């Protein structure tokens, strides 16, 4: 079942081109018109939505954070992301014009289920993004958008994460189509970019040896920091979570802009810092800002490990290690930039002799509150 891989996790990391491709399959026609069959909410109702709240836990919540950037940009609907277990206990503002998007690989996470139930009681419409057919959360939601990543066995989520991000892009584009926020041609172009990502993920996987070698050389590391901005921020959080879960190494992810507000005090000689760099072709001054963040930590002794876009030579002089990912748009980059971080955590945990499929203290689905 592991297809010759030493662990389910490695198999699932390598399944990711297929997981993304399967999630995209059959959801749009040649003109870029999306038809989401399981979207059982009346389109007229979806047109009146004035707020989206994404509810999820753990890695699925990071997929939600990526979704916020895409949905707000494409649909202009205010979108919040909240951990399911925080949501219910703070008297949130939810009504019939609120769309709840829950994200859960298992569809059984109790915290998320309870949050969805609560939101429904308040009259909200609920969509479940889920990887498990017929599980409880999609059954209790008004609509479901299945991710087709295939069964995820390893406790640490990998392919489900990329499939969830893909599904939220589809949902965002569907809402933009319905509400007329994007022209059909723009949707078609974004779908064409998305369709190219499986092959690009495969390219990242083909370069796994470089990141595995780095992981082996870092087996004695005690703490690792991850920095990102924009959609690179949730990717940084996910990179840190993978390392904690699998290698039991202290790790933290930060929004790079937050460095000077405190975390930069942590940097001392030799501190490993991963930096997720946005495309230099992207909007605004995002790229330049992140490059200056790299310089700031490096000036204080950090060992910088940079994930950047192919052809971005500007980062080389600031980095001990550079991993290049294929070109893509700013919003779609998490489908690529996450992969080296997964490989790194898996390889480091394996080097330390840990069971990457069954990390200590963790369960695959958390069915208690
Ligand atoms: O099944 P779910 O997506 O609802 O699970 C949510 C989290 O428990 C899950 O993502 C967890 O954080 C994983 N161990 C991450 O690798």
TrEMBL record:
Q: Which reaction does it catalyse?
A: D-fructose 6-phosphate + L-glutamine = D-glucosamine 6-phosphate + L-glutamate
**Which coarse location class describes where this protein primarily resides?**
cytoplasm
GO MF annotation, one: glutamine-fructose-6-phosphate transaminase (isomerizing) activity
What compartments host this protein? Cytoplasm
Tell me the keywords, alphabetical order. Aminotransferase, Cytoplasm, Glutamine amidotransferase, Repeat, Transferase
Q: Where is the SIS domain?
A: 41-181, 214-359
**Keyword Nucleus (UniProt):** no
Which of the seven top EC classes does this enzyme belong to?
transferase
| E.C. number | 2.6.1.16
Active site, UniProt feature: 364
Q: How does it assemble?
A: Homodimer.
Function (record text): Catalyzes the first step in hexosamine metabolism, converting fructose-6P into glucosamine-6P using glutamine as a nitrogen source.
Q: What name is this protein filed under? A: Glutamine--fructose-6-phosphate aminotransferase [isomerizing]
Higher taxonomy: Bacteria, Bacillati, Actinomycetota, Actinomycetes, Micrococcales
């Amino acid at each position: 079942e592991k297809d010759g891989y030493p662990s389910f996790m490695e198999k699932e990391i390598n399944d990711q081109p297929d997981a993304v491709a399967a999630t995209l399959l059959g959801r749009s026609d040649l003109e870029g018109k999306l038809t989401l069959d399981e979207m059982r909410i009346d389109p007229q109702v979806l047109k009146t939505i004035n707020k989206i709240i994404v509810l999820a836990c753990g890695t699925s919540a990071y997929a939600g954070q990526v979704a916020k950037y895409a949905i707000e940009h494409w649909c202009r609907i205010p979108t919040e992301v909240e951990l399911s277990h925080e949501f219910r206990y703070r008297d949130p503002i939810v009504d019939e014009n609120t769309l709840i998007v829950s994200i859960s690989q298992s569809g059984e996470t109790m915290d998320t289920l309870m949050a969805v139930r609560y939101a429904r009681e308040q009259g909200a419409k609920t969509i479940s993004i889920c990887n498990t057919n017929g599980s409880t959360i999609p059954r209790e939601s008004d609509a479901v958008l299945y991710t087709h990543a295939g069964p995820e066995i390893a406790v640490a989520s990998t392919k489900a994460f990329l499939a969830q991000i893909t599904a939220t892009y589809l949902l965002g584009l569907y809402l933009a189509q319905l509400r007329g926020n994007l022209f059909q041609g723009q949707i078609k172009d974004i779908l064409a970019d998305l369709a190219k990502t499986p092959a690009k993920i495969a390219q990242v996987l083909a370069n796994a040896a470089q990141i595995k070698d780095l992981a082996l050389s870092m087996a004695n590391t005690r703490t690792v920091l991850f920095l990102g901005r924009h959609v690179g921020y949730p990717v940084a959080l996910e990179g840190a979570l993978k390392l904690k879960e699998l290698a039991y190494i202290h790790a933290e992810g930060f929004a790079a802009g937050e460095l000077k507000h405190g975390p930069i005090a942590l940097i001392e000689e030799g501190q490993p810092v991963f930096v997720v760099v946005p495309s230099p072709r992207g909007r605004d001054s995002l790229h330049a800002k992140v490059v200056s963040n790299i310089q700031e930590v490096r000036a204080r002794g950090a060992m910088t490990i940079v994930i950047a876009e192919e052809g971005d030579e500007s980062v080389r002089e600031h980095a001990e290690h550079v991993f290049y990912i294929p070109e893509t748009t700013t919003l779609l980059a998490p489908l690529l930039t996450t992969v080296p971080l997964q490989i790194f955590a898996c390889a480091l945990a394996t080097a330390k002799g840990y069971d990457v499929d069954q990390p200590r203290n963790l369960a695959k689905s958390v069915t208690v509150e």
